[in-house]
Amino acid sequence: MKNENVIEAQNLTKMFGDFTAVNAISFKVKKGEIFGFLGANGAGKTTAMKMLIGISKPTSGAAKVAGFDVFTNAEDIKKNIGYMSQKFALYDDLTVKENITFFGGIYGLSRKSIKEKSTILIEELGLEKVASKLVGSLPLGWKQKLSFSVSLLHDPKIVFLDEPTGGVDPITRRQFWEMIYKAANQGTTVFVTTHYMDEAEYCDRVSIMVNGKIEALDTPKKLKQQFNVANMNDVFLKLARG
């Protein structure tokens, strides 16, 4: 099952009038893979992600996510994925427990399951002392880790993370990636965008978008060999400069 493709895109395209935001991109992502989706601001990666998670209809091409077609089965896709947006997704005016309960209900979990998962989640994150505090009072790093954990509440096949470590300190970033590794080891596919090039090194494979097109796609090791550079930041710079 490890070789099963859970995301498949073929010539996926999104146009806004005469502007082509995503230009015929093709790629596959395997079950349990950590797939890095990189690109500068405006490269088209967020637009591509929105098509894959079922909230933006492609102009042309084809794609399947968790076995469902992005054109005809968008609602089924949403039920089988987790999503953590670039802007913090939980509700600041609800407590930690209330957020978990609320999103558990949205994901269709039973009250018993929500209670069990809530207890486990709070213990794993070490949030016992602040479980009854408003989420808005928590440090950003705690918010991000909680948001990621909530996106996994319903055991999705795939979790999409849009710039999940933006603005957090290096220690929290490392802890966050430990959580990503744990999810992947348990079979969850992780599709992650990041502008931190050192984080690209943590991914199994990486695609790099430039002006709406995927200009490179491989393991970090092979990309560094291909471009004859020592780190992923230099790979990115070479592609950006054309």
From TrEMBL:
Its main location: membrane. Residues 7-236 form the ABC transporter domain. Coiled coil: none annotated. It comes from the Bacteria. GO terms for molecular function: ATP binding; ATP hydrolysis activity. Pfam families: ABC_tran. It is a multi-pass membrane protein. Keywords: ATP-binding, Membrane, Nucleotide-binding, Transmembrane, Transmembrane helix, Transport. One of its GO terms (cellular component) is membrane. It is found in: Membrane. SUPFAM superfamilies: P-loop containing nucleoside triphosphate hydrolases. This is ABC transporter ATP-binding protein. The lineage of its organism: Bacteria, Pseudomonadati, Bacteroidota, Flavobacteriia, Flavobacteriales.
